[in-house]
Write a structure and sequence with these properties.
Elements (H helix, E strand, L loop, with lengths): L1 H19 L5 E8 L10 E6 L4 E7 L5 E3 L6 E9 L2 E10 L5 E9 L3 H10 L5 E4 L2 E5 L11 H7 L3 E3 L5 E3 L2 E8 L2 E2 L5 H7 L5 E9 L2 H6 L7 E8 L5 E12 L4 E11 L2 E10 L20 E14 L3 E25 L4 E28 L2 E25 L30 E27 L6 E25 L9 E8 L2 E17 L2 E22 L32 E19 L3 E20 L2 E23 L2 E12 L10 E2 L5 E4 L7 E14 L4 E13 L1 E8 L6 E8 L2 E13 L5 E20 L4 E21 L3 E16 L10 E13 L3 E13 L9 E13 L5 E8 L8 E5 L3 E7 L5 E9 L6 H8 L26
Parallel strand pairs: 1-7, 12-15, 33-37
Antiparallel strand pairs: 1-4, 2-3, 2-5, 5-6, 8-9, 9-14, 10-11, 11-12, 12-13, 14-15, 16-17, 16-48, 17-18, 18-19, 19-20, 20-21, 20-47, 21-22, 22-23, 23-24, 24-25, 24-26, 25-27, 26-27, 27-28, 28-29, 29-30, 30-31, 31-34, 32-33, 34-35, 35-38, 36-37, 38-39, 39-40, 40-41, 41-42, 42-43, 43-44, 44-45, ...
Helix pairs in contact: 3-4
Length: 976
């Protein structure tokens, strides 16, 4: 017994000794640059055991400089912190057995003067560098006109595109958020950042795929990562207040003004922005490429907003509030050709729209780490919107091409010309319609998400709860008047005159509850489990009232557009055009995956199983039905990354996703609220399934400042849902019914290359693209009265090439691009064509004596290969600006900006599908001059900050584009 007791004691002591040597101590802290106090993102942090300096643990700091090392056992260590361009720092640590965590505080790194000096002497700033999956652009390597905003800089980045709506793509991936020093700027809103962030506050731009809050904390890939553009502010500008104000007036009644005030101190940011203009911030084109831009109307905007962000070791807060007002005046003319098996159908239209929109948005973000094991994220936001719009349209459908009868058939669409001796199109008319409407609407929405994560051990085991809730309430009312006339006697239809009042209140809410669990099963290998429940509810009640008097009801009023509601209108409810729908949706998402992490590669794969239950209560006219649907979806995913080095990696992703047709599309119901566009449901619709695959490779040679990037994408859809269109040649109207179809797919590839030459003042950029689209649709065959399957293919080959010379006072760029399209139509080969667009030009930025700068660009944009010669044209676009800085420290700037000096820019857009092609032209003011005064506000920062402000200026004038609320109209309609 005594021997047993002694043995038990020794066993316990040995056990305690083993426990005491377990890895239970966490080391955390933050790395910053000593001179600017900015976070040292991706600094290398290593813990070396003494006395042999053996590697014990290591990690890279995050974008805010914070780091938390994997747990280690008690003992004596040396903390080694290294960062490119800075001296390596060593911190001795003694970790005792009775502690669970060691906070080393803020570690400030001193700059390596020798390394920096050599870098300045041997090379100009490289345009782009690669760090694993992050592309980093140097702002100083791209010259922009005086006072330019972020949008102008992004246009110059290799592989970057900005479309007509302000959406940004970099290397084919759409940028979803803009961040400043790792913090969201106005909730990450891209357009706000593009229009309000001055170039001269930006040191570097980084683009990378930012994981969702859930994936970042748990390591579970939920497929919700988003491409972000993260801006690093210049050194010294986080030491106090800085800002700018500007005002401008111009020809064609153009005006613009803005204000931006910032306070960046250590880990806190505050920004106040305001602007008012009627030029829509379009900016210099930058030259070198086809830019047949769609101005899409004239818009005046006003905006006021505030943004803040702050961070400590345990707490990170951020939020913003924005007020926006816009007044848009849009005129458009359109010409379209619908492909039929036996002849084509032609349509022309004119439209006018004036809309005013007021919006208020507020968002907030909280991330709290009460201890080293717990992470809590809370994100609420709120928005309110109000809109008031008025529209008027004229349209007509013709048996043959009306351009063969008159030069501009859009001049003969008004009802005053129908069936008169002055109507040259009377013999080929099928139908004609005039309509006018006004709409007022209000919308309110609020949502919030809460995420709580708890690490259960130091090996990667963790559990996370995430809940979301959203609510929306919308209300709208519309007055409309329309007249449709059918000219073919075979149609047997009289004029269709409608005067209506429509109300459409809708309400919706949804909530989700999600639980995730991560379990380590081997070294750096984790099993991932997730369960998510989602409930959605929506209710809409559309009520349509006829404002035409009904004599049988004793109504004798005369209602004209613009009048108020007549007494007793409630009795004229049109049940065939009114409907009520209540939608309830239940979804269970069960996900399982495996995450394998190794030094050279990372593999994440899994599958999501989604049983769904949906109920729709639907009432329309005599129909009162309840539809229930139970489906089972699955979604596999693969994400593989292989790292050849810190500057070279290969990544492959695959995602499969099922999607269900809408419940109303499954109803056997016909909607004839628009007599020329009748829509039907299809109870036989099947769910569609899409396969998406991406392959991405990049590499970078720092010595030669040479980077390469390749990107391939393939998307295929099984049972995709398309519209089967039956054309009625007598009425010119169409009946649209959703159908499943197979064969839709598209593939895309791109290759980017940039390098500095031996004389690093010279750089070359090349960006090549190839895209193939196989679009399948149904083409109506009049003779057989059925739809034939038609395939339309488009192969696009594109190349952008530019070369730049840059020194301290002069930059000159020559550039060019071409996009060649091979368009083929299987059933109507006579519609085949090979249109192409190309552009070439030059731009320069010159720093002159006396604090004066000159910026100009000229580009020739050309179209060729269209069947209609009027589309084959050149546009020579020339813009210029001269700016003079003055006052102490060049605090003020006055500039003269001239846009489209030669008055050749047009506003045309073109689209092609398997069953139709169309061309639209919009009003816009492209050619005008502006005189701008800008003033840089006082800076209460260090000398470096003031130096940065003086170098090249810091006004927020920006360069505005050719849009506004007055003047400008579409010229002659251009054909194909």
């Amino acid at each position: 017994m005594k021997r047993f007791s002694v043995g038990l004691v020794l066993l316990l002591l040995s056990t305690f000794s083993i426990f005491a040597q377990n890895k239970v101590i966490t080391v955390s802290g933050r790395v910053v640059e000593s001179d600017s106090k900015e976070p040292a993102a991706q600094a290398t942090v290593q813990l070396l055991s003494l006395p042999d300096s053996a590697y014990a643990a290591g990690i890279a700091s995050n974008n805010q400089g914070w780091f938390t090392l994997p747990k280690v056992k008690a003992g004596k260590y040396l903390l080694k912190v290294s960062y490119i361009g800075f001296l390596t720092k060593y911190v001795p640590l003694h970790l005792y057995a009775n502690m669970t965590e060691k906070r080393v505080g803020t570690i400030a790194l001193e700059s390596d003067a020798v390394m920096l000096k050599e870098a300045v002497i041997t090379a100009e700033a490289p345009q782009v560098t690669v760090k694993e999956d992050t592309l980093e652009y140097n702002s100083s390597a791209y010259r922009t006109p005086e006072g330019a905003m972020l949008e102008e800089l992004v246009k110059k980045l290799p592989g970057a595109e900005i479309d007509d709506e302000g959406n940004v793509k970099i290397n084919g991936k759409e940028v979803k958020k803009i961040m400043v020093d790792g913090k969201e700027f106005f909730g990450g809103d891209v357009k706000t950042g593009l229009k309000n962030l001055p170039v001269n506050m930006i040191d570097k731009l980084k683009t990378y795929d930012k994981k969702s809050d859930l994936a970042r904390v748990t390591g579970i890939d939920d497929g919700e990562e988003e491409t972000v553009l993260d801006l690093k502010v210049k050194k010294g500008m986080n030491e106090g207040w800085f800002g700018n104000a500007s005002a401008a007036v111009g020809t064609e009644d153009r005006y613009g003004s803005n204000l931006m005030l910032n306070r960046f101190v250590d880990n806190s940011q505050f920004s106040l922005i305001g602007s008012a203009n009627n030029v829509n911030d379009q900016g210099f084109s930058g030259g070198g490429g086809p830019r047949f831009r769609n101005s899409n109307g004239l818009t005046a905007t006003k905006m006021l907003g505030a943004n803040f962000a702050t961070q400590s070791e345990k707490l990170e807060l951020g939020g913003s509030a924005r007020y926006n007002f816009s007044d848009r005046d849009a005129l458009s003319t359109n010409y379209s050709e619908r492909f039929l098996q036996n002849g084509n159908s032609y349509s022309n239209s004119n439209s006018k729209n004036r809309s005013k929109n007021t919006n208020f948005n507020a968002d907030f973000r909280l991330e709290w780490k009460p201890d080293t094991l717990t992470n809590i994220i809370f994100r609420p936001n709120f928005s309110y919107g109000k809109s008031d719009s008025h529209s008027k349209s004229e349209s007509g459908t013709f048996k043959s091409d009306p351009f063969n009868v008159v030069p501009n058939p859009n001049d003969f669409l008004d009802k005053s010309i129908w069936n008169t001796t002055d109507d040259p199109l009377d013999d080929i008319r099928v139908n004609a319609s005039n309509s006018e409407s006004s709409t007022e609407s209000n919308s309110l929405s609020a949502n919030a998400s809460l995420q709580v994560n708890r690490r259960l051990n130091n090996q990667g085991r963790n559990i996370t709860f995430r809940g979301t809730f959203s609510y929306g309430d919308n209300d709208s009312e519309q007055f409309s008047e329309s007249l449709t006339r059918y000219f073919d006697t075979a149609a047997g239809k009289s004029d269709d005159e409608r005067k209506q009042y429509i109300t459409s209140p809708t309400q919706n809410y949804d909530y989700t509850a999600e639980l995730t669990y991560n379990e380590p099963v081997a070294k750096a290998t984790f099993l991932q489990f997730r369960y998510k429940f989602q409930y959605k509810y929506s209710e809409s009640d559309r009520s349509t009232y006829s404002l035409l008097p009904d004599a049988d009801k004793g109504q004798d009023w005369i209602w004209n557009y613009g009048d108020g509601l007549p007494e007793g209108y409630e009795s004229n409810k049109d049940m065939s055009l009114s409907k009520y729908a209540q939608y309830k949706y239940y979804n269970h998402d069960i996900n399982a995956g495996l995450n394998i992490i190794r030094e050279k590669y990372r593999l994440n794969f899994g599958v999501s199983l989604q049983p769904q239950n949906t109920r729709l209560d639907y009432k329309k006219a005599e129909i009162d039905t309840v539809v229930k649907r139970n489906v089972f979806n699955f979604a596999p995913n693969i994400d593989f990354r292989y790292r050849f080095s810190k500057v070279s990696q290969l990544r492959f992703t695959y995602r499969g996703r099922a999607s269900q047709p809408s419940m109303e599309n499954l109803l056997d119901v016909t909607d004839d609220s628009n007599p020329l566009n009748i829509r039907m449901g299809n109870p036989g619709l099947k769910p569609s399934f899409s396969h998406s695959m991406r392959l991405f490779y990049n590499t970078y040679n720092g010595d030669k400042q040479r980077g390469m990037m390749a990107h391939a994408f393939l998307n295929m859809t099984q049972n995709s849902i398309t519209n089967s269109t039956t054309y009625n040649q007598a009425t010119g109207g169409v009946t649209v019914k959703p159908e499943n179809i197979n064969g839709n797919w598209n593939a895309m590839g791109m290759f980017g290359f940039n390098t500095a030459l031996k004389d690093k003042r010279f750089t070359i950029n090349s960006f090549s693209r190839v895209n193939y689209t196989n679009a399948v649709a149904y083409l109506y065959n009049e003779s057989t009265q059925v739809n034939d399957k038609n395939t339309s293919t488009t192969l696009t080959l594109g190349e952008n090439l530019n070369g730049t010379f840059r020194n301290d006072w002069f930059e000159f760029t020559i550039n060019g691009s071409i996009n060649y399209n091979f368009e083929r139509n299987e059933l109507r080969p006579e519609n085949n064509q090979e249109p192409y667009t190309f552009g070439y030009g030059a731009s320069t930025n010159i720093s002159l004596p006396w604090s004066m700068t000159l910026s100009t660009n000229i580009t020739n944009n050309a179209r060729r290969g269209y069947r209609d010669a009027s589309m084959n044209k050149n546009e020579l676009i020339w813009n210029a600006q001269i700016a003079q800085n003055f006052l102490k420290g060049n605090a003020a700037t006055i500039s003269l900006e001239i846009y489209d000096i030669l008055r050749q820019q047009s506003n045309i857009s073109r689209s092609l599908t398997a069953d139709m092609r169309s061309v639209s032209e919009y009003n816009g003011i492209n050619s005008y001059c502006m005189l701008r005064f800008s003033y840089r506000l006082n800076v209460f920062g260090n000398k470096e900050a003031r130096g940065n402000m003086r170098q090249g200026g810091f006004d927020g004038g920006g360069h505005r584009g050719p849009r506004g609320p007055h003047g400008g109209g579409p010229g002659r309609m251009m054909r194909f």
